[in-house]
Amino acid sequence: MNIELVPAEKEDIAEIWKMQVEAFQELLDRYQDYDTNPAAEGVDRIRERYDQPDSVYYFIVDGHERVGVIRVIDKKDGSRKRISPIWIMPAYQGRGYAQQAIRKAEELHGSKNWSLDTILQEKGNLYLYEKMGYHKTGKVEHINDRMDIVFYEKE
Q1: Using one digit for the tens of pLDDT, what is the confidence trace for 30-54?
Q2: Could you give the 3-state DSSP secondary structure of residue 21?
Q3: pTM of the prediction?
Q4: Cα–Cα 20 to 30 A to 122, which of 13, 88, 138, 151?
Q5: What are the two backbone dihedrals, phi and then psi, of residue 72, each rounded to the nearest 5 degrees?
Q6: How far apart are CA 38 and CA 57, in angstroms?
Q7: At 70, which helix (H) or strand (E)?
Q8: Is 42 in contact with 74 (CB distance < 8 Å)?
């Protein structure tokens, strides 16, 4: 497996939105976090993020298959770069795509000074990010009785 990160074009916004809803629906059902879960967002929210000058959506591509998406926020001013969000489509999860996508994003944008956040109760996500060199900042945001968001950084 040798993935590529392919920058999304404006005409890809509807596809990104459909993929995002499908990828995050199970988490929305489990945690009922309608204010924060990407599956609860409308296509206009994707369009707003896409139009931000420091924001790039990449398709995570294996061969000719779009297996997921990663969005990178990089102000290119020395401040922390941010992954928000990243997802792998359900049919492709558990194959190492997220790890490879993070590595590729770090190759493109620099390997140091990153941040991201994830659901504290999703132990697989915590394991992935910690394995990739991210460490918890100590900040945790309580969302509801089912979930909390934990914040990570990588120097």
Answers
A1: 999 999 999 999 999 999 999 999 9
A2: helix
A3: 0.96
A4: 13
A5: -115, 135
A6: 14
A7: strand 65-73
A8: no
Q: For the chain, how far is it from start to end, CA to CA, in angstroms?
A: 28
Residue 6 amino acid letter: V
Residue 77 identity (one-letter amino acid): D
Would you give the DSSP letter of residue 13? H
Q: What is the mean pLDDT of residues 86-114?
A: 97
Cross-strand partners of 118:
150
Residue 86 class from Cβ within 10 Å (0-12 exposed, 13-18 middle, 19+ buried)? Answer: buried
pLDDT of residue 55: 98
Task: Please identify which residue in the block is written with the tokens 């489990």.
Answer: 30
Instruction: Name 136's bridge partners.
Output: 152
Contact criterion met (CB below 8 Å) for 31 and 144: yes
Strand partners of residue 65:
62
Residue 146 per-residue DSSP state? S
**CA–CA gap between residue 77 and residue 58 (Å, rounded):** 21
Q: What average pLDDT does the structure give for the chain? A: 97
pLDDT in tens, 70-88: 999 999 999 999 999 999 9
CB neighbour list of residue 44: distance below 8 Å, 6 or more residues apart: none
